[in-house]
Specification:
This protein has 426 residues and is mainly α. Among the domains are: 3-86, Rna Polymerase Sigma Factor, Chain: A (Orthogonal Bundle), CATH 1.10.1740; 330-425, Serine Threonine Protein Phosphatase 5, Tetratricopeptide repeat. It is built from 20 helices and two strands. It has a two-stranded parallel ribbon with strand order 1-2.
Length: 426
């Protein structure tokens, strides 16, 4: 194997194993920032040795053993953390004889629990939402700072600062490296699910830039969600989130045209929907419901997505059921955005004249003042009612508010179509 091929293999192995490495090391040193540095040290050692010695039979275990030795050396040298040194002394005495001969066991030891601790630490409420997202993608997704910056269209130094500050905040706040228990688990789990869904949504409907979707972000979020579902199999909302992401991800190929233009849900070629992902999503939804979580916010959204997935054609969509599910969602998580989505479903089920008052009631909502989908939905309803001039104005306003180039283009096309229809009527 050439040196460049070995380097590519090392990069691939590290991307797969880095989260386990950092999680295992954080259990020893109780500091995710230091754990990441030690994992990087192990990577550097691999880059130095593997091109000559060859890739070991179990590269993940090799990296873990090397990193653990670094962790042990670090703690031994540190005079400032004498107490940790003493605590770890027992671990060293017990673990050292087995590290070299039993690399297989080293990588598997408490991996699930360690990953779970890392998830809850990276998504700790002491951090801002942006910091949680960046740190989660870095520590659990294995993305570089450059990759995160590119995914969210923000400068690389900004992401680097967020990550550095997040690690510092966790250390200064002495956030324990543990899984919360009891009532705290529900609150902290909500934060974890929010971060994962934010990542997915940014990939599914990019808020800015030239691309309508960023599939890599969807894949990262889906992978994290599946891991979380394995680690917390009795939490219905985790399965609800996984179900939602699986079903939405199933439409990825149908959401974008040959030139990258967006294709709206009702106009998509359903033959392009990924049936495997739909089956996985429906199975996850069934698990959430079996665990008593049918009315959780993510399970409800997954149930709405399932209505679309089960319809063989757009006209077969069960809009009355979707409208009812949105009504339940409003009661569980009341928000202007959910109200707007409910109005859309209500309009599809009972006609635009019935839905327009629901949308108009949101016009004075301050949080939607710059939300482009409000004038977009209103413009669509007005067009269906034949009020083309008003519809054009709303769609042009929506185009002026979105930061996504592809979405702006399709909104302006719809506005132009309204203008043409109006001129024909005159």
């Amino acid at each position: 194997m050439t040196a460049s091929a070995t380097h590519r293999a090392i990069d691939a192995v590290f991307r797969i194993e880095s989260a386990k490495l950092i999680a295992g090391l954080a259990r020893i040193v109780r500091d995710v920032g230091l754990a990441e540095e030690l994992a990087q040290d192990a990577l550097v050692t691999a880059l130095e040795r593997w091109p000559e010695a060859g890739i070991p039979e179990n590269p993940g275990a090799w990296l873990m053993a090397t990193a653990k030795h670094r962790a042990i050396d670090h703690v031994r040298r540190s005079k400032r953390i004498e107490r940790k040194h003493e605590e770890l002394g027992h671990t060293i005495e017990a673990a050292q004889p087995s590290i070299a001969p039993d690399l297989e066991a080293a990588i598997d030891e408490d991996v699930g629990d360690d990953l779970l601790r890392l998830v809850f630490t990276a998504c700790h409420p002491v951090l801002s939402t942006e910091a949680r997202v960046a740190l989660t993608l870095r520590l659990l997704g294995g993305l570089s700072t450059e990759e995160i910056a590119r995914a969210f269209l923000v400068p690389e130094p900004t992401v680097a600062q967020r990550i550095v500050r997040a690690k510092r905040t966790l250390a200064e706040a002495r956030v324990p490296f543990e899984v919360p228990r009891g009532e705290e688990l529900a609150v902290r789990l909500s934060s974890v699910l929010q971060v994962i869904y934010l990542v997915f949504n940014e990939g599914y409907s990019a808020t800015a830039g030239d691309d309508w979707m960023r599939p890599a972000l969807c894949e990262d979020a889906l992978r994290l969600g599946r891991i979380l579902a394995e680690l917390l199999p009795k939490e219905p909302e985790v399965h609800g989130l996984v179900a939602l992401m699986e079903i939405q991800a199933s439409r990825a190929r149908a959401r974008v045209g040959p030139s990258g233009e967006p294709i709206l849900l009702l106009e998509q070629n359903r033959g392009l929907w990924d049936q495997l992902l739909i089956r996985r999503g429906l199975a996850a939804l069934a698990r959430a419901e079996a665990l008593g979580g049918a009315w959780g916010p993510y399970a409800l959204q997954a149930a709405i997505a399932a209505c679309h997935a089960r319809a063989r054609a757009a006209e077969e969509t069960d809009w009355p059921r979707i409208a009812a599910l949105y009504l339940a969602l409003v009661e569980v998580t009341p928000s202007p955005v959910v109200e707007l989505n409910r109005a859309v479903a209500f309009g599809m089920a009972f006609g635009p004249a019935a839905a327009l008052p629901l949308v108009d009631a949101l016009l004075a909502e301050p949080s939607l003042a710059q939300y482009h989908l409000l004038p977009s939905v209103r413009g669509d309803l007005l067009a269906k009612l034949g009020r083309m001039d008003e519809a054009r104005v709303e769609l042009e306003r929506a185009a002026s508010l979105t930061r996504n180039t592809r979405e702006r283009a399709i909104l302006l096309e719809r506005a132009a179509a309204c203008a043409r229809a109006s001129s024909r009527a005159d």
